[in-house]
Design goal:
This protein is mostly helical. The structure holds protoporphyrin IX containing FE (HEM). The site of protoporphyrin IX containing FE (HEM) has 24 residues, from helix 2, helix 4 and helix 5.
Length: 153
Amino acid sequence: MLQVRSRHLLLALLALALCLSPAAFVSAADKEKKESEDTELAKHMEVIEKAMKKLKKSLKSADENAASATTVAEMKKASEACVELIPAYAAKVPEAKRAEFVESYKKEMKEFIVEVDKLADAVKAGKNEEALTIHKKLGELEDKGHEKFTPEN
Ligand code: HEM
C-alpha cells in the first residue's frame, strides 16, 4: 500500500516537474543567450549605465560626494575601455565608410570622457548643481551617440 502511494506521489511530482521545468529552461537559456550576445563594448556601457543611475541620486547630496567621486572614477575607467573598442554596427557600414564611422565614434567617446572629467572636477569642488548639469549633458551625449552608432536599436 505504501509502495503504491509513494509511486503516486512520485508520478505527481514528476508531472509537476514536467510542467514547471520548461519555463525554467527557457529563461535560463534566454539569459545565457543575452550574456553571450553582449559585446565587450556593451558590457562597459552597462557599467556606465549603472554609474549614471547611482549618480542621479548621489549627486543631489554633497554629503555623498565621496561615493560620487568613486562612481565617476568607475565610469571614467569604463569609458576609456569603450574608446578602444569598435561598435558592432561598424561591420554593417560599407567598407569605404567604415574607418570614418569608427573614427567618428572614437571622437565622440573622447568628448564624452572630457565631460566625465568635468564631472569629477565639479564633485571634487563640491559644486553639486554644476555636477547635476553635467550629468544631464552626459545623458544627452548618450542619446546622440546611440542614435548615430547603434542605428538599429
Ligand atoms: C551615459 C552614457 C551612456 C550610457 C548609460 C550608455 C549605455 C549603453 C547601454 C546600456 C548599451 C547596451 C548594451 C546592451 O546591448 O546590452 C549601450 C550600447 C552602445 N553604446 Fe552606449 N551608453 C552611453 C554613451 C554612449 C556614447 C557616448 C556612445 C558613442 C559615442 C555610445 C555608443 C554605444 C554603442 C556603439 C553601443 C552598442 C554596443 C556595440 O556596438 O557593441 N554609448 N550603451
